[in-house]
């Protein structure tokens, strides 16, 4: 049985239902990625999995027990959550913010320990923010700030890690770095990870288990090689595409079809060769 599950989950903001009747089993020891169009309920679902949002119906279960009935500290020792737009206390330093990830492991009789120190140093090294330790979080760029938040979630050292759009504000190199880090944490330490991503190709590359949502329901889930098809992309995202193997990983790679009115590459080449309406080429010396 999966440690983290949802049964008949209905989520709403006041009277507006966002997710309805959702069942989900998060595979243990795997990277699960949730994808879907804007406002489909993927981030809302992640918030409920981390008990940031109380269900209107159904329940989220951790080890078979409803999150609603578990002590907050026990949840924090089992589930680490990085929300989409976290807010840091004013003027806090990077080292202090990352250190706050250790709070669930402390008590009045057990203050800062060598284990806490090691966890913080390791988390900062893995996210490449060690050199920023004494800087104020307010001074950092968006990409630096995001890596610091990820470091705090890693310092919490939980078996379950929930990340909502962890690549936001990051350039492509740091996006790959963060997702590679997530993969290494999963492979080396057996952590169960749930990630919400907008980029379907990144999701297909890094996911062991992919969940596609639309209008608050799960449309398909499973191995990306089986789930990501042109038909699914059209149904979920309303986009015509072809799906080919990624030349590096073999995972599905979604290539959007030519936009309306654009000539396919072969026809454009023929037009240029025949002196058609293609853009003129500059003369060569």
From TrEMBL:
PROSITE patterns: ABC_TRANSPORTER_1 (PS00211), ABC_TRANSPORTER_2 (PS50893)
Domain ABC transporter: from-to ranges: 4-240
InterPro entries (UniProt xref): AAA+_ATPase, ABC_transporter-like_ATP-bd, ABC_transporter-like_CS, P-loop_NTPase, Siderophore_ABC-ATPase
GO molecular function, one term: ATP binding
Keyword field contains Iron: yes
SUPFAM superfamilies, A to Z: P-loop containing nucleoside triphosphate hydrolases
Topological relation to the membrane, as annotated: Peripheral membrane protein
Major site of localization recorded for this protein: membrane
Positions of region (Disordered): 257-285
Keyword Ion transport carried by entry: yes
Subcellular location: Cell membrane
The name this protein goes by in its record: ABC transporter ATP-binding protein
Species: Streptomyces solicathayae
């Amino acid at each position: 049985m999966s440690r983290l599950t949802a049964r008949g989950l209905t989520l709403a903001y006041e009277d507006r239902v966002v997710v309805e009747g959702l069942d989900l089993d998060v595979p243990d020891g795997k990277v699960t990625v949730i994808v879907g169009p804007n406002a489909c309920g993927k981030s809302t679902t992640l918030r409920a999995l981390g008990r940031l949002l109380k269900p209107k119906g159904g329940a989220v279960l951790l080890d078979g027990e409803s999150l609603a009935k578990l002590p907050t500290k026990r949840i924090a020792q089992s589930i680490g959550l990085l929300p989409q737009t976290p807010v840091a206390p004013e003027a806090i330093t990077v080292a202090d913010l990352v250190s706050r990830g250790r709070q669930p492991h402390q008590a009045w009789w057990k203050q800062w320990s060598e284990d806490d120190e090691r966890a913080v140093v390791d988390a900062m090294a893995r996210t490449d923010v060690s050199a920023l330790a004494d800087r104020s979080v307010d001074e950092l760029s968006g990409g630096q700030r995001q890596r610091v938040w990820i470091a705090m979630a890693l310092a919490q050292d939980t078996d379950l890690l929930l990340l909502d759009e962890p690549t936001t504000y990051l350039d492509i190199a740091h996006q790959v770095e963060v997702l590679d880090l997530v993969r290494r944490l999963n492979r080396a330490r057996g952590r169960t990870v749930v990630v919400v991503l907008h980029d379907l190709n990144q999701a297909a590359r890094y996911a062991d288990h992919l969940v596609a949502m639309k209008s608050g329901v799960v449309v398909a889930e499973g191995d990306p090689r089986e789930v990501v098809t042109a038909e699914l992309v059209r149904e979920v995202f309303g986009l015509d595409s072809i799906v080919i193997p990624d030349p590096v990983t073999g995972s599905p790679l979604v290539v959007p079809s030519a936009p309306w009115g654009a000539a396919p590459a072969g026809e454009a080449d023929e037009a240029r060769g025949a002196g058609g309406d293609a853009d003129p080429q500059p003369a060569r010396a």
